[in-house]
Write a structure and sequence with these properties.
By secondary structure, this protein is α/β, with parallel strands linked by helices. The chain contains 14 helices and 17 strands. Helix 5 runs parallel beside helix 10. The structure holds L-homoserine.
Length: 436
């Protein structure tokens, strides 16, 4: 059979890794795909990037349209990232009848509904395994491996930069900013690292996972997002003293009232495997009704781990080039006409447990006041630490773990507690999941 010609858009970390993997493993890959996969053209904004991998014999251009419009190219691999110009290029490729492979989580989370509709109209595939959790084949797992299950919840560490920062803070007592700089230097962080530390990148990936897990439309705007910038070494240490680790989790949970979609720092019992995922590694826990809890672990970023997913998608697309488009695995796992509009719950309606840290005046009755307010709101305390006030200080830290409660009710209680004369400043509140 004739080789399949592909075109690459973008020659950054992932683009370079993809060229290297395609070249190094060419024979294994064609044995799997049934045809040779040939890179026909590569477009990169900066031709000096051509040196990051072995581009000898390959045509490298600065014009992305030369790739998208090349009639010999059957599959366009979009590795530019971001919305502009990636979205226009992907739609243009589809308009020209080309299948697309992309690692672009933002593009899929924000514009996936439109892109998949266009692809389906034209009988084309848009594959995006590399968009979530780098080298972990979580899209394939959810879409195919767990297809017999009713997925109950998904909880993932899906941003390596944040996990690296939280790990270094806990293990080495390092401060936030210096670890972030190192993550940038190592190439883990997004071009604008605010996307990492403010939770947006995790929310993009969670949007995709939730859609595939529950058969709901991609709805990034409905995700509650809180990043890790407010996490202090103090809370990391108290969490540890109570037997927990703090991780930035993306959580999608199906409840009787709707779907929870939320990204926030979360205390997890340290005995859970996922609590021990360190550094830039990613891990995703998926609870299916038939299979029970399953855990997927691996490199969530980096050149070759991400290329591993890009190339797997290429093999999938090549294998299905000749198959009937109606009978392919649907983009969002469920048949397009069966995507359901289950409501997404606001964060007030989410039920979870909490870690609270209050700064309280060191005098009799303060703890009783706090306990009374919590009890009146129906909130019970699971654990409590009251530290001695530092010498000369008038206030002392009180750290509490609550049982599960609706966020709305916790907010009502916290408003009353913060209004007490004996409480200084706002309470620190971090959500807690036992992930049982
Ligand atoms: N900035 C992302 C991360 C890269 O740190 O996980 C992979 O999507």
């Amino acid at each position: 059979m004739k080789p399949v010609k592909i075109g690459l858009l973008g020659l950054g970390t992932v683009g370079g890794g993809t060229v290297n993997v395609l070249r190094r493993n060419a024979s294994e890959i064609s044995r799997r795909a049934g045809r040779e996969i040939q890179i026909a053209r590569i477009a990169t904004r900066n031709l000096a990037r051509a040196r990051i991998c072995d581009t000898s014999g390959l045509e490298v251009t600065t014009d992305p349209h030369a790739v998208v419009d090349d009639p010999d190219i059957q599959i366009v691999v979009e590795l530019i990232g971001g919305e502009v110009p990636a979205k226009d290029l992907v739609l243009r490729a589809l308009n020209r009848g080309k299948h697309v492979v992309t690692a672009n989580k933002m593009l899929i989370a924000l514009h996936g509904n439109e892109i998949f509709a266009e692809a389906s109209r034209r009988g084309l595939m848009v594959a995006f395994e590399a968009a979530v959790a780098g080298g972990i084949p979580i899209i394939k797992t959810l879409r195919e491996g767990l297809a017999g299950n009713r997925v109950e919840w998904v909880a993932g560490i899906i941003n390596g930069t944040c996990n690296f920062i939280l790990t270094e803070m806990r293990d080495k007592g390092r401060d936030f900013d210096s670890v972030l700089k190192e993550a940038q230097a190592l190439g883990y962080a997004e071009a604008d690292p605010a996307f990492d530390i403010e939770g947006t990148d995790t929310a993009h990936k969670l949007t995709i996972l939730a859609s595939i897990a529950f058969g709901i439309p991609l709805q990034f705007q409905r995700v509650y997002v809180e990043g890790i910038t407010g996490i202090t070494a103090t809370d990391v240490a108290y969490a540890e003293a109570l037997g927990y680790r703090i991780k930035l989790l993306g959580i999608a949970r199906r409840t009787e009232r709707g779907v929870e979609l939320r990204v926030h720092p979360t205390l997890i019992p340290e005995r859970r495997l996922i609590a021990n995922v360190a550094g830039v590694m990613n891990a995703i826990l998926v609870k299916g009704d038939a299979v029970g809890p399953t855990l997927y672990y691996g490199a969530g970023a980096g050149a070759e781990p991400t290329a591993s997913s890009v190339v797997a998608d290429l093999v999938d697309v090549v294998r299905t080039l000749t198959s009937d488009s109606e009978n392919r695995v649907p983009h969002l796992a469920f048949q397009p006409q069966s995507i359901s509009d289950i409501p997404v719950l606001g964060i007030d309606e989410v039920e979870t447990a909490y870690y609270l840290r209050l700064n309280a005046e060191d005098k009799p009755g303060v703890l009783a006041d706090i306990a009374r307010i919590l009890a009146n709101q129906g909130i019970s305390i699971e654990a409590l630490i009251q530290k001695e006030a530092p010498t000369g200080a008038s206030h002392l830290p009180i750290i509490m773990i609550t049982h599960r409660v609706l966020e709305r009710e916790l907010n009502a209680a916290l408003a009353q507690i913060e209004a007490l004369d004996t409480i200084q400043g706002p309470a620190v509140r971090i959500r807690l999941e036992t992930l049982k």
